[in-house]
Amino acid sequence: MYRTITMAILAALITTPAASAMTTCEDLVQCQQAMQENIYQHWKARHTYPGSTVTVMVNNDLMGNVDVTVEQSSGFAKFDQSAVEALKSSILTLDPSSLPEEDLAKLKKFKLRLRAE
């Protein structure tokens, strides 16, 4: 019984829109552009705090574990949290597996400054 449930859950995960919406990166520039587009698509609070900025440090093991730390806050907790959530969502939609090792290293740890416009 447990095996059937596990298989059903796995099948559901494989066929979900999120699983099929992965962006395969052909090169680092394409990966960065896709990340930027996804951030602005999911970043809800950017319209509420125009001109605000937040600087974050990203640690990504490329296995689904993404840690985003706010290094310089905008002063608005909701704005910062919304940016962190959008960035995490964006990173998790990328499939950088076809990138060379030197480009993968650039996606593992990086600093990013986000500005609401």
> How many DSSP H or I helices?
5
β-strand number: 5
Q: Largest sheet, described in full?
A: 3 strands, antiparallel
Structural class based on helices, strands and sheet pairing? alpha+beta
Any idea what the shape is? globular
Low-pLDDT residue spans:
1-20
User: Strands of the largest sheet, in order across it?
Assistant: 3-2-5
Walk me through this protein's architecture.
β2 and β3 (about 65-70) form a beta hairpin. The longest helix has 16 residues, at about 75-90. The protein is an alpha+beta fold and about 120 residues long. The model is unreliable at about 1-20 (pLDDT under 50). The protein starts with a helix and ends with a strand. It has five helices and five strands. α3 packs across α4 (about 75-90). It has helices spanning about 1-15, 15-20, 30-40, 75-90, 100-110; strands spanning about 25, 55-60, 65-70, 95, 110-115.
